[in-house]
Amino acid sequence: MKRSKRFEVLAARPVNQDGFVVEWPEVGLIAMGSPNDPKPSIKIENGKVIEMDGVPRAKFDFIDQFIADYAIDVTIADQAMAMEDTDIAKMLVDIHVPREEVVKVARGLTAAKLVAVFNTMNVVEMMMAMQKMRARKIPSNQCHITNTKDNPVLIAADAAEAAMRGFDEMETTVAVVRYAPFNALSLQIGGQVGRGGVLIQCALEEATELLLGMRGITAYAETISVYGTENVFVDGDDTPWSKAFLASAYASRGLKMRFTSGTGSEVQMGYAEGKSMLYLEIRCIMITRGAGVQGLQNGSVSCVGVPAAVPSGIRAILAENLCTTMLDMEVASSNDQTFTHSDIRRTARTLMQMLPGTDFICSGYSGTPNYDNMFAGSNWDVDDYDDWNIIQRDLMVDGGLRPASEEEVIAVRNKAAKALQAVFKEFGFPAITDEEVEAATYAHGTKDMPGRNIVEDLKAAEDMMKRGITGVDIVKALAKNGFTDVAENVLGTLKQRISGDYLHTSAILDKDLNVISAVNCRNDYRGPGTGYRMSKERWDEIKNIRQAISPSDFDV
Amino acid sequence: MQINEQLIREIVKQVLSGMEQPQAASKPAALLGRSMTLVEKGEARPGTKADEVIIAVAPAFGKYQNKTIVNVPHSDVLREMIAGIEEEGVKARVIRVLRSSDVAFAAHDATKLSGSGIAIGIQSRGTTVIHQKDLPPLSNLELFSQSPLLDLEVYRQIGRNAAKYAKGESPTPVPTRNDQMARPKFQAKAAVLHIKETEHVVPGAKPIELEYSFN
Known about the structure:
- Chain A has helices at residues 5-11, 62-71, 74-81, 85-93, 99-106, 111-119, 123-133, 152-165, 180-194, 206-214, 230-235, 240-252, 265-268, 277-291, 313-326, 343-354, 385-395, 406-427, 434-442, 454-466, 471-480, 484-499, 536-543, and strands spanning 42-45, 48-52, 55-56, 142-144, 169-172, 199-202, 220-225, 256-260, 295-297, 330-332, 363-366, 508-509, 515-516.
- Chain A is an alpha/beta fold.
- In chain A, the strands form four sheets. Chain A has a four-stranded parallel beta sheet with strand order 6-5-4-11. In chain A, strands 7-8-9-10 form a four-stranded parallel beta sheet, with helices on one face.
């Protein structure tokens, strides 16, 4: 065939480098509405669910059992399940129906019924619902801070810049797992230089992650994964009960935590049982609710390439975020992983959460260049900072970030690198040279950093764990070396571990280390003029971009 | 799970079309694409010699699937890893894990059979991990999670480093590669390959010793 020149140009567009597949329900490659999804039903006897979504109790798998016993409110279930799908959907978008009323009904719905409700809604309706159903009134944002070499100085500098730019939570992970203690330490120090009260986590294998948290080096955890089919749980030697136990291990030590799940994970792991991705994900959301966990990171997350490859996949992602809020939990709504080569497509995907606002719009936004992002790349990275800020300004939407000047970014990066240099010296770790401090201050990413002796660093990181270094030791090392303000910030986050106030749903800390959560900052959206409205100060901050010219710039 | 083979082929074809190969700097080896023979020798037993590393292949590796997600032949992958192990003066054993297609569990099972306590796990799509006995299953010594970025040079380095761990050394980890566009390009294909791998999981089955030869 003679090629059309238009089609040749189209073929070269970024979007045509993405992978797409047709729906394939037999193996679960379908976002919503699989012909194999169960039909909604419930039967309750003596306060116990004896049939759910067409399955009698005797045939429950362990996920069914966990959901039936712990996630469904049997006092409302009969009434809620009797409602029309569209009536429930209308409650979600109706500004005259308060959030609490929707939450009450949602607690009585089965997974199949929740899916049926979402099947009736378009994305604008889901965004309307999200605006009302988000637990915390003020939206927020989370970032990733990693690099391919696990360079600690760069992690500290990147964390400081990201905290100053407005992220309330930050997450690191490792290129080499044995670097984990250093990554956590560097993130904690850098974050608290950027602004007091930033919460940090280090995503790792669960036992190590818990240990770092218990030592007071990290403040929260998020990568406790749950799945929608029994086989995937079994593959990981886990059950809903073991995950619930792990959740309580965190909570009992005063550590904030949320679960993680997302559409596509069961397909990715090879065990989707022919069900739609959204149906399986809603089972995960209900497991999380049943386990008593305050929040969930979902929105496909690292499996986003799977729903994004099929029709209505990005809509399913919004539906799963919305479902989390309907079950009265904090939602960290993904937007954190690359799924497309197209700038248009990645922006459209993010507006679904950015416009209505979620507890964490990204979970997270890459606070490093994407080549350094060890979560295999985020949907947004440092090179997009100005785009994000200008979208906030264009639409008068609070996406959690603020414009920053080059001078203040350089200053805060330098201070973080120096603080880490001092702490490394205090602990007797391999020295951070002045050359490294200088490089981290001005770096774009690891390509601008001198190399470190990795073998020596790994030995010292192991030594850090063997010596039992804790958050208190970090406070002491900072204070002794003149970083009193940073020491106080680290100490402030440690105090939260004792008071436990930040274990409430959707909690973050402000710069004075006060808790802002769904308890003291409840979302009360009821239509225009209600809910979250930007303060004048916040709007001034967003408006104030360095690129805008003002009358005084003209010589007339 | 019953899967229609023809449907899978169609989907794989669709996923493959429109996907470019990555510009990975694969060093052209002289031996590329030569076949290998894997003979199953019954249940794998614990090794007694401290100078061995086990390579644990996933259920479909070299049997139902024969190349990685970027079409590197499994025979070349295995040969490079074994060569890497042997050039450090350590012996390589190969087993097939059947009870799981999860690379961490395949490798972790193998560490318990490895005389040195060190094992490499590899899935058919190419995802690889170096593991050590007594680490939690989902921890590791080195993880190579982005299968589209792994070429023969990396597989040889993985073999070499695993052997060094077996000798009690602390090698510098194989440099981590990262491509943020690997997911958009390959995730759907990775899912299909993993579904095909997982079809061959036999719950509760013991790992099998494999005798290998390269033709």
